[in-house]
Specification:
mainly alpha, 78% helix, flat
């Protein structure tokens, strides 16, 4: 049970770290005005949308772990988790608070006001409205590039190993 909790916490921490929202240990505590402005920036920028899958991902992980341990209970585990969705779905709001705290630690009040002004500008509004498409398209293009890179690396490694007398 402790192992499960540790794995779940690690998964959440890695998710946050992947998107670069980890606050430095030496950040000063933001004041209430900074927090209020930071929350506004997070809400305006839709930054929390990146983490919309966090709760369902944790549910899937928990389901997978317990079904692997108890395959004969898969329907019951699914039923219990399904019933718990509304309770834990409400916790998504906590992500906004976490992000606001991080933004407030990284930006001054002036910076946050500048960000709010930007997100209220035509370009900022366009960025917000196109953000999901940009993210999706960028992800697809990076995946394609990554696949090509992987193939090129594999080909080069095989060629180099062949020069050394090894066939892999």
């Amino acid at each position: 049970m402790v192992s499960l909790a540790i794995r779940t916490l690690r998964a959440g921490a890695m998710l946050i770290a992947l998107f670069g929202f980890v606050a430095s240990a030496q950040a000063q505590a933001p004041n209430p005005a900074q927090l209020k402005l930071a929350r506004q920036v997070v809400e305006m920028s839709a930054a929390s949308r990146v983490f919309e899958a966090a709760v369902p991902t944790v549910f899937q992980q928990i389901y997978g772990i317990y079904v692997q341990q108890n395959p004969d209970l898969s329907k019951e585990i699914a039923g219990v988790l399904q019933a718990l969705i509304p309770e834990f779905d409400k916790r998504k709001e906590e992500i906004v608070g976490i992000l606001a705290q991080t933004y407030a630690e990284k930006f001054t009040e002036a910076d946050l006001n500048d960000l709010i002004a930007f997100y209220n500008s035509p370009t900022g509004k366009k960025l917000i409205s196109q953000g999901a498409d940009i993210g999706r398209d960028s992800y697809a293009k990076v995946q394609e590039w990554s696949g090509k890179l992987s193939q090129q690396l594999t080909d080069r490694m095989k060629a180099e190993m062949k020069k050394k007398g090894h066939t892999i």
